Protein 1
Amino acid sequence: SKRYSITLLPGDGIGPEVISVAKHVLILAGSLEGIEFNFQEMPMGGSALDLVGVPLPEETLSAAKKSDAVLLGAIGGYKWDKNEKHLKPETGLLQLREGLRVFANLRPATVLPQLVDASTLKKEVAEGVDLMVVRELTGGIYFGKPRGFGTNEDGEEIGFNTEVYATYEVDRIARVAFETARKRHGKLCSVDKANVLEASMFWRKRVIAVAAEYPDVELSHMYVDNAAMQLVRNPKQFDTIVTNNIFGDILSDEASMITGSIGMLPSASLGSSGPGLFEPIHGSAPDIANQDKANPLATVLSAAMLLKYGLGEEKAAKRIENAVLDTLNKGFRTGDIYSAGNKLVGCKEMGEEVLKSI
Amino acid sequence: SKRYSITLLPGDGIGPEVISVAKHVLILAGSLEGIEFNFQEMPMGGSALDLVGVPLPEETLSAAKKSDAVLLGAIGGYKWDKNEKHLKPETGLLQLREGLRVFANLRPATVLPQLVDASTLKKEVAEGVDLMVVRELTGGIYFGKPRGFGTNEDGEEIGFNTEVYATYEVDRIARVAFETARKRHGKLCSVDKANVLEASMFWRKRVIAVAAEYPDVELSHMYVDNAAMQLVRNPKQFDTIVTNNIFGDILSDEASMITGSIGMLPSASLGSSGPGLFEPIHGSAPDIANQDKANPLATVLSAAMLLKYGLGEEKAAKRIENAVLDTLNKGFRTGDIYSAGNKLVGCKEMGEEVLKSI
Ligand SMILES: CC(C)[C@H](C(=O)O)[C@@H](O)C(=O)O
Ligand SMILES: CC(C)[C@H](C(=O)O)[C@@H](O)C(=O)O
């Protein structure tokens, strides 16, 4: 039987609750496919700050690097919101992404037929939405230098950041995006602001260059402001979207809200080699933490992405995905996706129902 | 009687058609309030490129600077899309904003009861939306230096831009935003990415400093990714939003699409002194140009903003706004906002109906 080592990073707020569910789901789905896991839980985010004073302890990063895949719950909370930058939970997340070199963030936004009413969009606009945002995750304005505070020529105080992309950075994310589009419906839309920004003109030039390797994928380009509109107007027009770090941050959140069920949406962050990082796209929701109210399905589906993209275990992944659909078909709903006529359950019970369906 | 000089910049595509309507509306509404106008039409955008080889001729900028207000139609088109940056219509627009020093871009997004069905959002989510985006327009990554192309330490090609804000830039846009919120419902939401970007931390610090002058306005802060979600989830939560140039570009377009009728939405760009720039938020729509299909109401409402914000002529502005509502109440609709049971009209006829209603 195969054996993989998984680093679990429960994090803050509802993180530990949803990670606990996903862990049990992994164990069961794995065992049915002859897969065993060694789990190692490590502190990260606000809980690491409280424990050892930094948001990403060295031990956590090195354990993550040595494992086959990393599953993260959620990080952050009011308690640490006023911390200085290097002592913010979010900084730990950025350090983790950088440390694992996971430059490709895959964020699906799918409207499940069972949950189409959860969207604020009209049914005919929302139903059938099934898109994937491929976001560059370790470059651009998030990491660009120079950055910081200073004074300008007039002696005025300033704050500044640098948006910068190099050839290898655009080329490798473009390749991931083209490969992703090829496995989906063969359509890739690259989003930029090439009518204003040099960094975007460069981005577009490299995406076009890489496109020569993928003649079977239909490439289009869209300005980011228009993309933000088109996601509202007609999200079904999109198959795969590729974009930079900051535009991807904004557009993938917009796309996920369009589905109406962000408690359902997983994500995968992948590098060229080494372990991938898998996490639900929702936050740590401190207001409902420890009340058994959280929706664990986004983390459960992140575990499925871990199996599929992180370990190449497609069969075990499919088991989990099917079990989630099954559980929804049976009418089980946590509060965030509840609608009349269904069965309201807590985090734990939802987890148990998924286990039954596997 | 009062007399104002107005620079008209018809621009490209449907620009000339909608400007022609707005001009006649201005003349009539003005005459009823004892106001006369001198209009001067100048070339700008693609049509200026074709005529004299630059997107913003010097004569156009100096005429605009000398006038009391500037009304722009729309610029751009496929024909000039592949032009080098300094020969793009968009570059002319950025030069115009910079030249007029119009740092504050006011973009209302209002769902009119008559047009609530045009939104892709569910009726209960869309109805009653009435928000204003105050976008910083002459700073940030649009204008920051250094910018361009080069090579990094590894000899790799790069493209880069600088996001930068100085104290005076944030302070003045914050003041416009607080004043705007004060005249509306007293709520201001400042949108940034202060959990990652130093430029945003600086932005937030200055907005908080300026807030001391406006104790009657309720200030909140939101990350840009969350704002992109909240606009879809519950746009009614917003009154006034203030944000930087690039986030404002994205969010104001998203907000306008949420109304479902971008053919209706005007904008105003204001400086500390000198003429303001007024324009519809829609583009030049080359595919329907010269077919008498364009919706002129966004430009007509931009003319109303010109009267109100540019010239302080509130009464004449109100006449135009009321005439537009009247025309909609009578059931007149251009194709973009048409729904069954209404009267489909072209650009010219819509203009004539507004004139009748004034
Ligand atoms: C928490 C924050 C630093 C992070 C980001 O901006 O990347 C988050 O918004 C995300 O999208 O994962
Ligand atoms: C045309 C383009 C340069 C412009 C911008 O990005 O500012 C447009 O999108 C706008 O919002 O007015």
Protein 2
Amino acid sequence: MKILVSNDDGIHATGIRTLVESLAMDHEVYVSAPDRERSATGHALTLHKPIRVDEIDFGLPNVTAYSVSGTPSDCVKIALNAVLDIRPDVVVSGINHGPNLGADVLYSGTVSAALEGMINGVPSIAVSLVNGYEKMADFGPGATFIREYLPKLLAAGIPERTILNVNIPAVGLSDMSGIRVTDLGTRIYQDSFEKRMDPRGNVYYWLAGEIVETSDGPTTDVKVIRDNLVSITPVTSDMTNYAALETHKPLLEVTGSILPVK
Amino acid sequence: MKILVSNDDGIHATGIRTLVESLAMDHEVYVSAPDRERSATGHALTLHKPIRVDEIDFGLPNVTAYSVSGTPSDCVKIALNAVLDIRPDVVVSGINHGPNLGADVLYSGTVSAALEGMINGVPSIAVSLVNGYEKMADFGPGATFIREYLPKLLAAGIPERTILNVNIPAVGLSDMSGIRVTDLGTRIYQDSFEKRMDPRGNVYYWLAGEIVETSDGPTTDVKVIRDNLVSITPVTSDMTNYAALETHKPLLEVTGSILPVK
């Protein structure tokens, strides 16, 4: 297969390197990833600045790699539309350093790179290691799992307007308890901003924040990962709340005194 | 009411000023918006840099305004968690210069500011003017519409984990044909990157892109806006594809040769 790999931790991160080393054993791998860390960038695009693309030596046969001065979405978009002269069979984004569970998905550059692949017509998955963000985590078992699982996953077919968001527990392969298809749980962060004063007397803030509560049913990603299961969530780019369409239509379509019509 | 207003075009944009002027006629308005344009930022957060917040004079009674060196999501998060000593009744993000229809929602800073309000427990809406991005559009009718409609909208109640994404046609109030609750259509962009050479012989790219196709059923935002209807789409932060959970569970939960278990 031809595989395009991206991430949001940057092209020099251990997670992407371990993944690429594993995939390149069996496949032709193309890397288009940010030149530096771009976590929590959401689905951002670079519109107001030019984007640089530099081919770099990844040190592996079968691998062609580009370092991009943009967001994860930029990296995938520019690879598919301007840089690559091949069409990949799949986009794999990751392996992210740390989980992308529940509402993390909204902020995740890793997920956004996969969504960009899907929007451009290529089956796409996002992969994260649930390792508590340690830089020195072992991405090896996760990378092996993805190499083995990828053909089955593509054979299963990915639903329309959807990517698969994979979270892998940070344990050895023999300690992973299985695979579960899940829905997104909720993790509630207590946001806090540290207020500081600079040497010239001006105030500035640092965003901090910690998880204070996870409320999750038995079928959520948040729950199954605790049991050392691999979590696979189908994540759609169609954010319409279809249930609310029914319930709220009459309530919201009140023109009444507002518009002079209908 | 106490209303928190944000946007992604920046605190000096005409769209937010017209909205604030309209809302301040009846309500106590707080503004927390980016110090400069932050379009297509998606749901990004600023984690690796400090954030500056400067109170500025908006020139209106009833209005307290903060210029923030961050993304739209930062603006709402920091207002609710660090800057405001009141709790707003609603977050209104906009009025955006240009539409946020279909898949635009994924990239939209305007929508992300509203999602951030909702995640922080405040009913939230995003408002965009479908004006073809002209800088000199008349935001007056849209601002009046929102002032009139807002109480009804809050009375109707916004579903859980959901914001309302409002797109308003760029016509006078008497030419708006009504209000429709819609689902997100699709607009397909033909992405193109302009490749250029800098004076030192290095290549760089500009992202361009135009809409080449809109495929949309009669109930989509893309469709109703063409008939000069106001489009209201309930947009959820839960991106789980629930239909795919059913169909793909057996296909994807194949541990088989991959994991030694279950």
